[in-house]
UniProtKB/TrEMBL annotation:
<feature type="domain" description="Glycosyltransferase subfamily 4-like N-terminal">
    <location>
        <begin position="14"/>
        <end position="177"/>
    </location>
</feature>
<dbReference type="InterPro" id="IPR023881">
    <property type="entry name" value="Thiol_BshA"/>
</dbReference>
<dbReference type="GO" id="GO:0016757">
    <property type="term" value="F:glycosyltransferase activity"/>
</dbReference>
<dbReference type="InterPro" id="IPR001296">
    <property type="entry name" value="Glyco_trans_1"/>
</dbReference>
<feature type="domain" description="Glycosyl transferase family 1">
    <location>
        <begin position="187"/>
        <end position="351"/>
    </location>
</feature>
<dbReference type="Pfam" id="PF00534">
    <property type="entry name" value="Glycos_transf_1"/>
</dbReference>
<dbReference type="GO" id="GO:0071793">
    <property type="term" value="P:bacillithiol biosynthetic process"/>
</dbReference>
<dbReference type="InterPro" id="IPR028098">
    <property type="entry name" value="Glyco_trans_4-like_N"/>
</dbReference>
<protein>
    <submittedName>
        <fullName>N-acetyl-alpha-D-glucosaminyl L-malate synthase BshA</fullName>
    </submittedName>
</protein>
<dbReference type="Pfam" id="PF13439">
    <property type="entry name" value="Glyco_transf_4"/>
</dbReference>
Length: 375
């Protein structure tokens, strides 16, 4: 069989979608596909050198006549160039806009016939709430794609409701690599961060956008640490970061909250964590939940989007209403005070992540989609 060539278009450094796109590319390369990333920057998780992974840089020109550099146009022409030169079979676009739209445009320019797979990650649909002008364009991106996937059932439903489209959308969940439990690369991590051995550790990892409601994490933690010796790790960076820092100082939590900024090794940070909080008001999936769960960390999440498809309420974590700080606090305390309960949730969290969301299972679903389109 001829080696199949897959082009992946993504924002390689943006949160979960970048992680999923990059890890998918790595898995495909390991299964002997040729993988061509088409993007502005090298995917950040691409640490190892693979002979069959190629990176095609999209250079965004800064012509004086444009107010903004035309990323979309540069991307479309790069995709078209790569389709023909590398003889691609599939373009897998992560995000309907701009990536699927650019891929559709590129397909019209290129000479070679290719198929387009589009994965919706949620943010496209969120944009509709902000700007209805995109309605028609997202619908076009979906209808012109040869196959469309959404990362959760909730996102699939939401997309169909918002756009009234007939085209089937398939749910392919995000995935996680199985990791070894409790293997710390730094045994003294707690000590290094000034966390006492008996103190409980809560963690929140996000891109600090407003939708993540990091304030809620802080106010819940304030209530918790009134009752239990604990520390809060805040991992990530984004538009709300400075405001959250000020809030932490204003309510006198600066000695209990540890700001870590962007971190590569979240495995170690999760290994020293007792509980993960994701209290967003919008979240199509919440990849960070899987990252926590596979490390045996139970999660408290909100009753929105794909979160209840990942956390099984009362078994490996708890689901609470958005902004219900009292309920969230009580559920956290329940788990933090009862070691046996937390251990049981921890085991269930890991087995749930591995049983339903492991990379081998989900990557195979994408592979089947590609093969059905190519053959
Ligand atoms: O949440 C973000 O702001 C980043 C965005 C992204 O592009 O990674 O996240 C979206 O895609 C992730 C991967 O599929 C999902 O895990 C996130 O839930 C989703 N974010 C939203 O729906 C807000």
């Amino acid at each position: 069989m001829m080696t199949k060539k897959i082009g992946i278009v993504c924002y390689p450094t943006v949160g979960g979608s970048g992680v999923v796109a990059t890890e998918l590319g790595i898995h495909l390369a390991e299964k002997n596909y040729d993988v061509h990333f088409i993007s502005t920057t090298m995917p950040f998780r691409l640490k190892k050198l693979y002979p069959n992974i190629y990176f095609h840089e999209v250079e965004v020109s800064n012509y004086p006549v444009f107010k903004e550099p035309p990323y979309d146009l540069s991307l479309a022409s790069k995709i078209a160039e790569v389709i023909d030169r590398e003889e691609l079979d599939i373009i897998h676009a992560h995000y309907a806009i701009p990536h699927a739209i650019c891929a559709i445009f590129a397909r019209q320019m290129a000479e070679r016939k290719i198929k387009i797979v589009t994965t919706l990650h949620g943010t496209d649909i969120t944009i509709l709430g902000i700007d209805q002008n995109f309605n028609q364009m997202i619908r076009y991106a979906i209808e012109q794609s040869d196959y469309v996937t959404a990362v959760s059932e909730s996102l699939r439903q939401q997309t169909e409701d918002a756009l009234h489209i007939q085209k089937p959308i398939d749910v392919v969940y995000n995935f996680i690599e199985p990791v070894d439990l409790y293997t710390l690369t730094n045994e003294n991590l707690k000590e290094d961060f000034g966390i006492k051995q008996h103190e409980k550790v809560l963690i929140h990892i996000s891109n600090f956008r407003q939708v993540k409601r990091v304030d809620d994490v802080i106010y819940v933690f304030k209530r918790i640490q009134n009752q239990i010796d604990s520390k809060l790790l805040l991992v990530g960076d984004g538009p709300e970061h400075s405001r959250i820092r000020n809030l932490v100082n204003d309510i006198n939590l600066q000695d209990q909250v540890i700001f870590l900024g962007r971190q590569d090794n979240i495995h170690d940070l999760l290994t020293i964590s007792d509980l993960n909080l994701l209290l967003s008001e919008k979240e199509s999936f919440g990849l960070v939940l899987l990252e926590a769960m596979v490390n045996g960390v139970p999660c408290i999440g909100t009753d929105i989007g794909g979160i209840p498809e990942v956390i099984v309420d009362g078994e490996n974590g708890y689901i609470c209403d958005v902004g219900d700080l009292e309920d969230i606090t009580n559920k956290c305390l329940l788990l933090l005070k009862d070691t046996e309960l937390r251990q049981s949730f921890s085991q269930h969290a890991r087995s749930h992540a591995l049983n339903y969301f492991s990379s081998d299972k989900i990557v195979k679903q994408y592979e089947d989609i590609y093969m059905n389109l190519i053959n």
